[in-house]
## 1
Amino acid sequence: MAPRTDSVTELWNVARYYTQRRWDEDGDIPDDGELKSEFKEHERYSDLHSQSSQQVLEELAESFTSWYDARQLYSELSLLRSVLREAKQAVAKNE
């Protein structure tokens, strides 16, 4: 039997809200282990087979981690572009 789509969606949304709130409060992204521990007693977790619930939370943790990594990479690239632009301007002034 396939997992109930509404339970999957609700578990994702509740866990996403929790993760977003944690990020906003202290800049931390909970890993899948923390999410599983936090939500193992949640009604939506229990609505699904445990492997399905765990997979939802693992994918959510991966999504946030990937978003954070991409955000960090973008910041580093922006800084590098700024440094390169300043270096080009300095070279141009000295020519």
## 2
Amino acid sequence: MTPPRSAFRRPLKGKKSDGTKNVDQSSSTAKNLDRFVPLASLKQVAPEPAVLLDQIRAIYFNTTKETIHADLAHALELLKDLPSEKAREKAAVYMEGLAQMRRDWIRNAQN
């Protein structure tokens, strides 16, 4: 024997299975607005090229033998965010310096 059709139905939203309304689950707009986050606030604003170049420069001057791999990866991610070829050319000097430091430190570690 199959159960009655009402056994398969879910209760309506905001109502208990016995048909009475749930008072604590009100759908007031004011209650829902405190959880609202505008999508515009979730978007990351692209930093200025000068800020990115300053960050790459700081990485170059503060890198150590222990942090070179992570620093190079971080500088590479910043380089990808640069909007123009001119800005990338300026950053290339620091990137080449980081790559040279890594090569030197690897070579010294092997000897």
## 3
Amino acid sequence: MDVFWCSTIANVRCMSSTFPNSTRAHWRVAGKPIFPAAMPPFVGRDALQIAPDGRLWVARTKNVAQPVHTYDVFDAAGRLTRRAELPPHRRLVGFGAREVSAVHRDADDLERLERYRY
């Protein structure tokens, strides 16, 4: 089996049996993988938010190239009741009565608050 080592910058190495088709599972630092085999369903402390009606909104892990935030919404019994998507470049920041508040960041990195009914 041929092995190709593709980078030694900062002790990062990519090992692949076929060049140039390496997969992220082969990227290693000090012999340990730097990417997980699977992405977690949500990331960070802001990923879980509870609405006033008791529903739990869970921000799903998104692809870097994906501008849309997707949320799984669970009822008090833990059942998935809906999947909600905000328009591109917006993130959930709070709730009102039957509405969500989101921040929109524009091309100039300016943020503005928006409301959406649900």
